[in-house]
């Protein structure tokens, strides 16, 4: 939004002093999406929902929001990763909790607390990595993955890649909480995504041995992770046989 910043007030506790040109955004946990504590706004403000999950088809449109007045209002739903990127990466989102502005460290802590799996630092690092490379990043649940990558966004192109995010220790051992992947499940995911015209990409987020748990409590940890991309492809012997072989 040119000329102003988005204002977001956690859990529906809206400020009464915000400017009419500001947008006020709610942050809700997945268990709170049906809560009646969310209030309607007055004036020309747009309503935006932020939740820890953007898995459903209505993500980004807020079709499940109902207003008691007859005026039609536009709604938007953002994931925690999208919201933090707007604040941290672009500086275009202001977050408030009970009329108190949250700095980036406080916002990071809030999103870590509201993420049930506790893997917000890993998932945001992956999100930030791809956004920094120019990709439009969306939830990949429909294709069995963590993210899907678009060249210019869903209205213009189909997603080019589906991404599985894996957290590893520096000795390449899995971090506790990773989804279980077998060769059979990888082959199934690859077939599903190839049928949809997408490549299957595995992003390894490697945690250095020197990184402590306390380091994960601030966004400074983002630059400490090591990232490695692996493109997973099916290899068929008949199609990849060398020409000089008898």
UniProtKB/TrEMBL annotation:
Example GO BP: tRNA-type intron splice site recognition and cleavage
Entry GO CC: cytoplasm; tRNA-intron endonuclease complex
Stretch list, region Disordered: 15-42, 49-68
EC number(s) recorded for this UniProt protein: 4.6.1.16
Compositionally skewed regions (Acidic residues) per UniProt: 23-34
Matches recorded under InterPro entries: tRNA_endonuc-like_dom_sf, tRNA_intron_Endo_cat-like_sf, tRNA_intron_Endonuc_cat-like, tRNA_splic
Catalytic activity, reaction form: pretRNA = a 3'-half-tRNA molecule with a 5'-OH end + a 5'-half-tRNA molecule with a 2',3'-cyclic phosphate end + an intron with a 2',3'-cyclic phosphate and a 5'-hydroxyl terminus
Domain tRNA intron endonuclease catalytic as annotated: residue spans: 120-172
Any GO MF annotation of the entry: nucleic acid binding
Pfam families in the cross-refs: tRNA_int_endo
Domain of life: Eukaryota
Family designation: Belongs to the tRNA-intron endonuclease family.
Protein name, entry field: tRNA-intron lyase
């Amino acid at each position: 939004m040119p000329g102003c910043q988005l204002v977001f007030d956690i859990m529906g506790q809206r400020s009464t002093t915000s400017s009419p040109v500001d947008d006020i955004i709610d942050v809700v946990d997945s268990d709170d999406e049906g809560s009646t504590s969310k209030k309607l706004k007055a004036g020309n403000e747009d309503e935006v929902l932020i939740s820890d999950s953007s898995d459903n088809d209505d993500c980004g449109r807020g079709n499940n929001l109902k207003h008691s007045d007859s005026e039609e209002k536009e709604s938007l739903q953002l994931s925690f990763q999208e919201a933090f990127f707007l604040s941290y990466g672009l500086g275009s989102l202001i977050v408030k909790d009970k009329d108190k502005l949250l700095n980036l460290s406080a916002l990071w802590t809030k999103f870590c607390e509201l993420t049930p799996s506790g893997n917000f630092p890993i998932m945001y690092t992956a999100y930030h990595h791809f956004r920094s490379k120019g990709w439009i990043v969306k939830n990949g649940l429909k294709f069995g993955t963590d993210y899907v990558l678009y060249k210019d966004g869903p209205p213009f192109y189909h997603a080019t890649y589906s991404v599985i995010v894996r957290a590893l220790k520096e000795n390449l051992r899995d971090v506790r909480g990773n989804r279980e992947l077998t060769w059979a499940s990888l082959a199934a995911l690859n077939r599903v995504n190839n049928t949809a015209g997408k490549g299957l990409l595995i992003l390894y987020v490697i945690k250095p041995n020197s990184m402590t748990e306390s380091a994960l409590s601030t966004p400074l940890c983002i630059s400490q992770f090591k990232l490695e991309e692996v493109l997973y492809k099916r290899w068929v012997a008949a199609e990849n046989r060398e020409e000089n072989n008898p």
